[in-house]
Amino acid sequence: MAADATTAPIMPSAPGSGRASSLQRVARRRSTIAVLMTTPLLVVIIGLVAYPAAYGIYLSTLNRRMTGFMEGEWLPTGLGNFEILLESETFWAVAWQSCIFAITAVILKALIGFWLAHMLHHIPSKGQRKWRGMLLVPWVIPPALSTLGWWWMFDPAYSSINWLFQVFGIPAVPWLGEKWWARLSIIIVNVWYGAPFFMIMYLAALKSVPEQLYEAAAIDGATSWQRLRYVTLPMMANIISITVLFSLIVTFANYDIVRVLTNGGPRDLTHVFASYAFQVGILSGNIPRGASISLFMFPILAICAFFVLRGVTRRNKEQM
Amino acid sequence: MADIKRRTLLRSGAGVAAAGVLSAPMVHAQGTGGTLRCGFWDHWVPNGNVVMRQLCAEWGQANRVDVQMDVVTSNGNQILLTINAQAQSRTGYDLMSFPTWEPSNHQRSLEPVDDVVRNLIQKYGAVTPAAEYLGKPAGTWVAIPAVAGTQLKPACVRFDLLQQHAGIDIRAMWPARNQRGPGADTWNWETFARAAEACHRAGFPFGLPMGSFTDAVDWVGALFESYGAFMMDDKGAVTVRNNAKLRAAVEMCARISRFLPNDVWAWDDGGNNRALISGRSALIFNPPSAWAVAKRDAPQVAENCWTVPMPAGPEGRFSAYLPYFWGIWNFSRNKGAAKAFLEWLSDRAQAERQTNGSNGYDIPPFTSMSDFKVWETEGPPVGSVYNYPVRAHHNARTSIAMAPAPAAMAVQMYNQGLNTKLIARIVQGGESVDQALGWVERELNTIRRGG
User: Fold this and answer.
1) What is the pLDDT of residue A125?
2) Would you call B329 helix, strand, or coil by DSSP?
3) Among the four A261, A312, B107, B417, which has the fewest Cβ within 10 Å?
4) Under an 8 A CB cutoff, do A81 and B450 touch?
5) Cβ A157–B429 below 8 Å, yes or no?
């Protein structure tokens, strides 16, 4: 039977049943089966992605009391919340901080993950498994719990790290109380949590690079740097792009680390979009404006996704 | 006897089954009053929940209502998420505990309770004005000021340290009886600032948080109010520019902040508790929960603690107040029972049981209930929390930070900690008072737009 046939193979009818009913014929159609098979996925996507997203967009157009659309002064009715945010100093500080946080953390995670993957790749396979398991531990602990552990280490009054510093005569560091230290603290925790994900993805990619390419490079007299630059990186380019994109999305939308460690302080200087949206939307009872804040992530991430995925598609075409 | 046919039997059976299903709700309920689903705040003091369960069971039995009680924690803002989810979906509990600003936030989804509050006022006198500001946002009571969970934040003082380093005998000033002691009239912010400086020099700085959590916003709010300093008036107009009272309050708060530990800008609501319990701090603003934990973990600290009213300012003495409310959803199917239950729960006898069960933590909304025995007998030292409730001789009023701004805007100002950030910009960020006031004015205008 041809692969593109429109009906599934017809089993012989039971003796005496006569012609198959029209219902049976519809049920046997491949298109019917396809719809049935994809229905659960469609339900999940519509129920848990499309509907909440559409509802979020709708909420962002409302006024605080949610009794009508939010009017703007220079933007059309319905976009008033966006107009207010664009004119707010605090919002721009949050946008700036979100970018600093996400970009710095993703770059650090990618570099550390890459380095760890290389180290692991060169460990004999016998001992590799236990190292792999140990290095994955930060990633498998629920982030709210591990962040609480970090908070105890950074705690303004009883920081265990500061206690160690004291032992060695180093002055105490205001980990969460001073602007740049607080920013660094949340980046450290995010990198600690996220680097193992990069490591495991890069390790899988490294293992899929054909050994013959390295052998050929060695015959051509390539140095280790040249092997990395001209063999490893091009072969891993797609997985690096996808991992960076995925991590950028997750890091941009991060909430728990900021909430547990600094609550956005001091002076709103560590807020990211999600924590600020929660503060404005849920804590302050302005759900439409909170929805507007969280929607600002969408265009930024959409632009990133567009360029990254275009790069992946282009490389795939070149390889074909 | 007539033959019973198969069809007749089936028909009868179906009738019986249908009757059973239709009457099922009443069969399940404890009595004829139906079911009342309650979501109460999960009390910090474990015994607080025990007392509330007992009260639910007692009222349910007496009124033949099946009272089902859940506790909803405020950790991780779970109670706020639950309230918002139920308001959006218009389904859930019949009545719930609502934190400070939530009655105003959800007034359109709450059943008016003017009748209940009127009855209670007739019995017990006026409700504290701060609770009225929050629970009666548009001239209608939308929630009943609750006993369980409501707290004040007076000063919890290490009397030994304050005596030693600042020369103030705070126990003599505010004894455990209904009268002021010598020097009580001098317990103002000027005296307080001098004591803060002295204790800071001695290595026991006052533990006053300056972040955006409630303890920080509340004490700064009470200080502002005692100077008559308001950033927004009751009409929603911004009153920052050329506001001499606000400037005086900001300068006093900034002065005090310079004598606090250098990390107070990052403290959460537990920071001040830890500072007191560890013995590092001479004073905090908090309900007696910090002292209660110290009784267990650091008894040598607890036995040197004494609770006194907050200092006074030029416009009077204010005590930071953070109430809970009990509200009934307007989609509840049992509003009558809910109202009757909440009125009973607010009665003096039940209120006293709740306060006793929480070791004196819970504050009733009626000043006539400031004489419960528990505040006299709790210790050590006995009398330590006598001055926790606002008493007549304190000559104090309760304060809600950001009042009298309309609640819809005040809640945003409160949760964004505008008052503490204003001070942080000056003390930590190095801005001038004018620059910081300019910033807060712009923020307030942002909040005003769109209501």
Assistant:
1) 78
2) strand
3) A312
4) yes
5) no
